[in-house]
């Protein structure tokens, strides 16, 4: 599988000074991931890396999840594909620099495609590309604004089974408010999350083909 083991830990002195861009070495990434080993091997556990660079953490988490897919569903082609896509939907990143987020998307799509033996024209490849275009966000994790200046929105994906997925969108500032709300025993703690935190967008159930049809990234790559 494609990885990040031979990458340099810095790209330039200017980028270190301007953006604190120093990548974590693979051996340290693995040690850190081992601290939450069970979660990295749970297919649908969600990870958000708010300064993801080109994916030094997200790529190995995806590799661990795909190994779990193989162990559990490797014998069924349909289930293997469905759960590999579910694994991909569970990973999120935010990154300030356009080249890093583009590299992160490409590396993760490469790992996903290689595992399933996909070609760029395949529906599942395009569905994966669509998921990554939403989950790997070009923006500022501090201000919670995307590169266009709008509020960062994250897509919450869930499996409906039989190759179908549900998507609800939440503003990141609302989600972080939700975490704080759970921490504090506030006046409203008797209310369920659903009564206070509403998604900013709700979508009808989607098949892989529906998700593929929404992909705009692959068209550019293969020049359709
Ligand atoms: C220290 S590097 C770490 C990259 C990766 N997480 C790793 O461990 O290898 C920090 C990354 O955060 C990005 N970054 C800096 N400020 C950011 C911000 N406010 N929001 C999102 N990303 C940011 C930088 O461009 C850089 O890629």
UniProtKB/TrEMBL annotation:
MmeI-like DNA-methyltransferase domain mapped to chain residues: 44-102
Gene Ontology biological-process annotations: methylation
Molecular function per GO: methyltransferase activity
Keywords linked to the UniProt accession: Methyltransferase, Transferase
One matching Pfam family: MmeI_Mtase
Name this protein carries in UniProt: N-6 DNA methylase
């Amino acid at each position: 599988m494609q990885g990040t083991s031979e990458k340099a830990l810095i790209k330039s002195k200017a980028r270190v000074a301007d953006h604190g861009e120093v990548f974590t070495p693979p051996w340290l990434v693995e040690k850190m991931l081992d601290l939450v080993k069970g979660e990295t091997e749970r297919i649908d556990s969600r990870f958000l890396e708010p300064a993801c660079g080109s994916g030094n953490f997200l790529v190995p988490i995806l590799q661990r999840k795909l190994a779990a897919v193989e162990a559990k569903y490797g014998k069924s082609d349909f289930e293997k594909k469905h759960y590999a896509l579910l694994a991909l939907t569970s990973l999120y990143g935010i990154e300030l620099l356009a080249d890093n987020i583009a590299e992160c998307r490409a590396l993760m799509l490469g790992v996903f495609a290689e595992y399933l033996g996909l070609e760029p024209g395949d529906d599942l490849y395009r569905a994966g590309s669509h998921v990554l275009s939403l989950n790997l966000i070009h923006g500022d994790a501090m201000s919670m604004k995307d590169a266009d200046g709008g509020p960062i929105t994250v897509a919450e994906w869930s499996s409906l089974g039989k190759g179908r997925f549900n998507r609800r969108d939440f503003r990141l500032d609302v989600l972080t408010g939700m975490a704080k709300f759970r921490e504090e025993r506030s006046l409203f703690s008797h209310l369920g999350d659903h009564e206070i935190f509403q998604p900013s967008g709700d979508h009808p159930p989607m098949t892989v083909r529906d998700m593929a049809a929404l992909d705009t990234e692959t068209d550019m790559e293969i020049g359709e």
